Amino acid sequence: MFSKQLIPVILCVLPALAAPSPLVSVKKNKNPIAGRYIVTFKDDVDGFVGVSSLTNKISSHSRVTHDEWDILNGFAGTFSDADVEFLRSLPSVASIEEDGHAHTQAVTTQ
Fold it and tell me: Which domain holds residue 79?
């Protein structure tokens, strides 16, 4: 049987153990494409398994467009705000960044 002295200690520790992990921040892009994001998994996560397990958990308003687990261990797609919040909360996600337009500059040599 528990000692009456342990009950306050347990009540103080339980909230800390049940606290959700911090949300992954979304990295901003200078020229973002609205609603498009690139998501990478942590190193110890198999990207193929990670992408497969997520496709049935996101809403019908979102979709994975590129599953690049063999290149960057992640995926890209169009995601609703609610699905971005869901992705931010996953412990398997290392980073999320806005997808954006990239511009090159031509260099001419003479």
Answer: 34-100
